[in-house]
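=== RUN LOG ===
request id: a7f3
mode: sequence -> structure
chains: 1
length: 133
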Amino acid sequence: MSQERVERVLDLYRLFNEGKFDQALADLPDEIEWVVLDVLPDQGPYDGREGVRRFWTAWLETFEEFRIDVLAGHDLDDHVVVIMRVGGTGRDSGLDVDSPPFTAVWTWRDDELARMEMFPDENTARAESTRFR
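=== RESULT ===
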């Protein structure tokens, strides 16, 4: 795994935070698997680029302002591990919301992103994900 792959994944978050949502989505393959935390209200499934669009559109509609704060990113075999938190201002409530940190594991097949799976933390990701080895 190269630092280039880490940078490609981190670029997706940067583009999203800059409001370049369509550009970020364009970098995802049509067949990507998108697996969210089991505590989120809508578990999906979010398959493919359009599924990812549906997931993020629902979040963007809930918040007046929304951001992803990347705390760390590193490679591990065929994966990129990103530790982050999300936050924003609720559209209806006007309240500021910040999540606790959580982990996203991005899996590569050949030179293409194939899967993104969220976990409460990196230790849980290592223990529970059969793809994260």
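=== NOTES ===
The first strand starts at residue 33 and ends at 35.
The chain has one domain: 3-128.
=== END ===
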